[in-house]
Each structure stands twice: as structure tokens, then as C-alpha cells.
Amino acid sequence: MTVVRDLSALFDPKSVAVVGASDDPAKYGHAVAAQALRAPDRRPVHLVNRRGGTVLGRPAATSLAAIGEPVELVVVSVPGPGFEAAVDDALACGARAIVGITAGFAETGESGRARQQAVAERVRAAGAVLVGPNCLGIADNTTELYLASDRFAPGGIALLSQSGNLALELQLRCAPHGLGFSRFVSLGNQADVTLVDLVADAARHEATRTIAVYAEDFGDGRAFAEAAADADKPVVLLTAGRGSASARSAQSHTGALTTSADVVAAACRDAGVELVATPREMAVVLAALNGTRPRAGRRAAVCTDGGGHGAIAADAAEAAGLAVPELSAAAQQRLRESLWEQSAVGNPVDLAGMGEQNPHSYGDTVTALLGLDEIDSVLLTGYFGGYSAATGGLGGPAAETSAAGGGNALAAGELATAQRIAAHRAKTAKPLVVQSMFPQSPSCRTLVEAGVPVFAATEDATRALAALTVAEGRQAPGVGPLPPPARPLRDFGYHGIRGLLGAAGVPFPEAREVTDEAGLPAAADAFPGPYVLKALHLLHKSDAGGVVLGLPDRDALLAAHREMHARLGARSYSVEAMADLRDGVELIVGVNRDPRFGPVAMVGLGGVLTEALHDVAFALAPVPAARAEALLTGLRTSALLTGVRGRPAVDVAAAAAVIERLTAFAAAHPEIAEIEVNPLLVRPDGALALDARAVPA
């Protein structure tokens, strides 16, 4: 459970002071002071400039002490060398919150990091909170607190951003959708108040409906995921640097296959966070969610008044992960009762020009589709909005009938239809999204004002619909707690790890370690053949010829050892009982410890082709068995698990149980950097780990 800090002094202080306020427009202290003075009646606003005089036409105090009364929130925008002294003055005058605009700290290197840490410790020791340093300020429209350089239109989005320019772009992109902001926080260096603190606070902020985050540095990424999962509000994340692989040299398949992008995507999936790649996509998803949680069900109906738009939209919907199923015979008959003969009713549903004769047909069809039990959402695409655009001076094409007054009638009918759709949308929880050639038309603006997202681009509309829906049966978002640390491992050898995993409930075949030829007879007598011989301390044993399978007896085992040892000269070998590989599927299960998100599990198709096939899925560890099953059934090659071309289905539940035990073991051992079982043989009658490897941190 996320610990929620008291940030009331940060967002609704009793008084504010801007240290470094200036009349010079080139200085940030000028912009912040000007914004702070937008609401002088809400709370006292003090301007501080060491030269005194006036700033922005108001008397400026030469110091915080000269104000002569306590100040609850202090903005510090002074040159770097004076920052510590300004913070000390703020704490001395009773400040409970400080916003550090000043730069030149952790972002400059180790000496700056040390200065930053010392300041943060002083602030925390005084019982205060610090945003920044190296931030661009904060704003809260709900409390009339304006301490950033720019204005943010009021609304329901809490925007937490490490980039000021991206925040401004998001505001511009959100405006056409009627979206605004409850608050804005520039994260800065997060010396004290972190992204996690701000997400947790925004989650309980009544005026915030959706939380939007742009972050390059998550700090404690797992804590961020936990806070986002705990928030009963949509969280949308835009981040950078996801494409780079881990800088640490990987020493296992798991480490080699795990990238930053995989880790962030897994954390978002587990936490229920919508991950986006661009500011445009973020605005699209924010417009779609707008304070609502996605509904279960991926079956979408596409409605259009032109076959081309319908076909393109159907393709885009499926590419976005939605299904566009053919409607049942009963549903098609119901639609035919209100449409004309040439209309297509299979899905996509094409009015085939009927909208030009009767714009109410749009409303009739959308209403009917939203009422179908076999459909979870509706996408209206194409010309809708064009009739009101033609008569609304928005550049739409004039209707052919306009000379006779028909254009005005079509526009009025379309506007009435938009009002009807909006009214019906308020009565159903099913998502409705519109793509229009004329998104700024009066009809479309009517829909936007009613909370129906409208987009100009088909790909935006389908992305929005995907954000509003989730697959049936998907588990509720959640990030499980890390188990308490277990006693640290000392033996990272093959048989040591094998034994510990076996004690944790991961099944292995019988095995004995031998260091020379003399030990082979005793190993062979410990269990019946056939045998497997492995050369230990090799990463890719099979590629190096360090694994021989199916040795029928002691003589074959001895011969294989002599040949292998002459070629590889390994320090030790493992003699193991040969598993029955018939009807089995080889999986890989591993855990890689990420510096930001902690233990991250990977499952996928295993064996010698693991890296070549790259059919893997990720989740934050530990992974419960139910989540593990979902990961396995979501693989591209999952048909291999359920039976294909006459092969029987394998025991997925047994594999999921092994995943749960292995990931719990790894999560309890922070001294493990990488651990994996590869392959994990899954047969119709259970699962058996055939090889294991661990790498110390």
C-alpha cells in the first residue's frame, strides 16, 4: 500500500512568497511572480527581491524575514549559489512547502547531487516538503494557485511532467477535446517530493479525474506502479528512453532479452496504466478516458455512411487489438428494419448514403448498436458532422440540395441526431467514439460537450476505443508486494541453485555432480537411465556441445564424458535422469532485477531457440499463478500449449505454479541479478525444470 504524504501546504497554502521575483521578463522569477499575482485575493502573495523596491508594481521585501509574518509556501528562483541560503530562510520563516526553480544540482554530477541531498535532508528534518530543484513550478486551478510560467486551462487532468515544453504541447492538444487541468507539477529532480508522492496525492484529489505523467526518471519505478495501481482513476504515462537495452552486461537469456521498454510496459500492464508513445497519443487517450475506467469487452461495431471509411476503420480497429465480429442474424434483421435495402448490416454497418436522405439514420443505427448484447463498443466513422459544417461556416462542402433549402434541413437533422446520440450515450456505459472528417462541426462539438470523444484521424479514434476497453477476463490491475528478504545465497553454482529451487517447490529430475571420471559410476547407480550429461559453468551449453541426451547406460555415459572432457575441459559435470520429452513444450522462466522496477519476470517459449524466436512476456515479480497462466496463454505460440496438429494439451496450470514459485524465490533474494529455468518442460502430466542458472548482483 502506497504511503500518502501530506501535500496540502503545497497545493493550498495559506500564503505564498516568490523569492527572486523580478521585473526582468528574461528571468523566470518574473513569470512566476506574474502568475502568482493572478489570484491576490485568495491568499497573501509576497514578492521578495534582495534589492527591494517594487516588482510588477508591488512592494518587494528584501528578504523573507522582512515580510514580518510566516509564509507557508515559498518559491525559490535565485542563482544557484544562493539556493541553500534561500531554503534556510524559508524554513526559518515557517515554510511548510518549497518549490525549487533553481537548477545546478543532481543534473550536473556528483557534487551537485551531494548539495541536493543535503538540502533535501534539511527540508525533511524541518517537517517541510520540497518540489524540485530544477523544476518549472506548480499550478492548481482548484485552489487558484498559479506558480508556473504558463496558464493551464481548468479541467480534470493532473499533469505531472519532467518537461515544461511537453506540458505546453499537451495543453494545446487537449484543448480541442474540451480537456483542461486540475493541477500541474513540474517534477524537477525529485529530491524530496517524488512522482510517487504526487500520483498518490492526485489519486485522492477530488477535482482530478485523470492523472497524466511524462517521466524520464521514475526513481522507484515499482513504487510508481503500486501508486498507479492503487489510484481509483486512470493513469496515462508518456516516457522516453524505453528503447535502450539494459546497460549491464547480461549473463543469461533473461538478461539478454529484457529491455527497458519491456520493463516499463510490464509495469504499466500490471498497474493498469495506459502507456503511450507520443504527446498526440497521450491527448487521444486522455480524451477517451476522461476520468472513466475501461470496460471489459473488445467487440466493436463500426458504423459509417461510406464503405471506404468503414473498411479502413475496421482494419484500424483490429490493428489496435479490437475485434469487429459479424453481427448475428437477429441483429442484422433488427438493423434492416430501419435502414434501406442497399445498406450493409454485417459489421461494418454502412448506411450507404442513407444519411444524405435522413440524417436521423445515424442516431437510429448508433442507438441500436449500443443496445446489442453482442457488441461492447461502437465506432462511428466518416462523414457525420459534414452537414452542419456546410451551414456552419466551417469549410464543409455545401450540400447539393442547399439551393432549395435542403442543406439547412440536413444540418438541423444532423444536429438533432447528435443531441439524441449524446442523450443516449449518457444512459449507457458502453464506449462510443467518433471519427469525423469535420471534427469541429456543430454536430461534433455537441458530442464532445456530452463526453463523446471525436477525432479527425481514424487511427486516433481506434486507439481511443482500445483505451476504453480491455479483454474479457483480464485480471484487475495490481502490483503485489515484495516478500521480505530471505537469507542471502552463498552458493550460485548449478547444483546449489537447483537444490534451493527444488526446496522452493520447483521440480527437477534426479541429478548428481561429478568432478572427474571416477565419480561417474556412483552417479549412474543413484538412479536408472537413460542419462543426460552436462558440462557445467557454460552459458550456452548446447551450442558448445556441452549437453548429451539419452545416454542409455553407464558405458555410454563414460564414453560421452571422456569425449566431452577432452574437448571442453569443464571443471565439473552433471549427470541427470533423462526426462520424457514426448508431447512436451519447452518454456523459459526467468527473473531479471531492474534497477528501477526491481525483479521483473519473463516467461516464453524456451529451449535452444529462445533468443531467436523471442516469444516472451513480462510482468513484475512475484507473479501469481493466475497471472502466469495469462502470460502463457498470451504468447504468440500459445497454440502449442493447448494442443496443435494432433498433439495433446500440456499442463499450463503446472507451468504457472512453477512460475509463481520461481518468481517468489527470486523476489525474496535481492542478491540475485538474474535467474532462469530454461528449459521448463511442460507435458500433459506436469512440469519439470531441466536446467537452471543464477547470476549474483
Automatic annotation (TrEMBL):
<dbReference type="InterPro" id="IPR051538">
    <property type="entry name" value="Acyl-CoA_Synth/Transferase"/>
</dbReference>
<dbReference type="Pfam" id="PF13607">
    <property type="entry name" value="Succ_CoA_lig"/>
</dbReference>
<dbReference type="InterPro" id="IPR016102">
    <property type="entry name" value="Succinyl-CoA_synth-like"/>
</dbReference>
<dbReference type="Pfam" id="PF19045">
    <property type="entry name" value="Ligase_CoA_2"/>
</dbReference>
<dbReference type="InterPro" id="IPR036291">
    <property type="entry name" value="NAD(P)-bd_dom_sf"/>
</dbReference>
<protein>
    <submittedName>
        <fullName>Acetate--CoA ligase family protein</fullName>
    </submittedName>
</protein>
<feature type="domain" description="CoA-binding">
    <location>
        <begin position="10"/>
        <end position="105"/>
    </location>
</feature>
<dbReference type="InterPro" id="IPR032875">
    <property type="entry name" value="Succ_CoA_lig_flav_dom"/>
</dbReference>
<dbReference type="InterPro" id="IPR043938">
    <property type="entry name" value="Ligase_CoA_dom"/>
</dbReference>
<keyword id="KW-0547">Nucleotide-binding</keyword>
<dbReference type="InterPro" id="IPR013815">
    <property type="entry name" value="ATP_grasp_subdomain_1"/>
</dbReference>
<dbReference type="GO" id="GO:0016874">
    <property type="term" value="F:ligase activity"/>
</dbReference>
<dbReference type="Pfam" id="PF13380">
    <property type="entry name" value="CoA_binding_2"/>
</dbReference>
<keyword id="KW-0067">ATP-binding</keyword>
<keyword id="KW-0436">Ligase</keyword>
<dbReference type="Pfam" id="PF13549">
    <property type="entry name" value="ATP-grasp_5"/>
</dbReference>
<dbReference type="InterPro" id="IPR003781">
    <property type="entry name" value="CoA-bd"/>
</dbReference>
